[in-house]
């Protein structure tokens, strides 16, 4: 397995867990593929639809080729604003769940919530190439 593939798969795994233990630190990072959590097929379809992609494999290949989500949306006539909104919704929902489960404090919740929009907006411009 080449290093580029290892980096992308590793980034996807981190994005899918979106923080795990990192929520306890003061700096949180999000990946453009954070949407790919195991929360249901409908959500995956929403992301693919917003990016105008036909499959997860097509999206993965575009990311693997070094394109950002913004590049993919622009190339395919997708809606990057919808991609951002989908990610904001999912990440906010994950934060809400973590707060309600007690895995983060109200202070951590507020700090992370304040960062989400900026993180997502930056992540759509990030490429892996």
Automatic annotation (TrEMBL):
Keywords: Signal. This is SHOCT domain-containing protein. Residues 1-22 form the signal peptide.
């Amino acid at each position: 397995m080449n290093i580029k593939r290892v980096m992308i798969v590793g980034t996807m795994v981190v994005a899918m867990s979106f923080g795990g233990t990192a929520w306890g630190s003061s700096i949180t990072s999000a990946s453009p593929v954070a949407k790919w959590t195991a929360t249901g097929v409908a959500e995956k379809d929403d992301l693919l639809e917003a990016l105008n992609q036909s499959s997860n494999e097509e999206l993965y290949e575009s990311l693997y080729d070094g394109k950002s989500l913004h590049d993919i949306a622009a190339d395919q006539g997708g809606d990057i604003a919808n991609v951002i909104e989908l990610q904001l919704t999912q990440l906010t929902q994950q934060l809400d769940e973590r707060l309600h489960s007690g895995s983060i404090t109200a202070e951590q919740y507020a700090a992370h919530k304040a960062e989400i929009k900026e993180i997502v907006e930056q992540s759509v411009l990030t490429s892996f190439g």
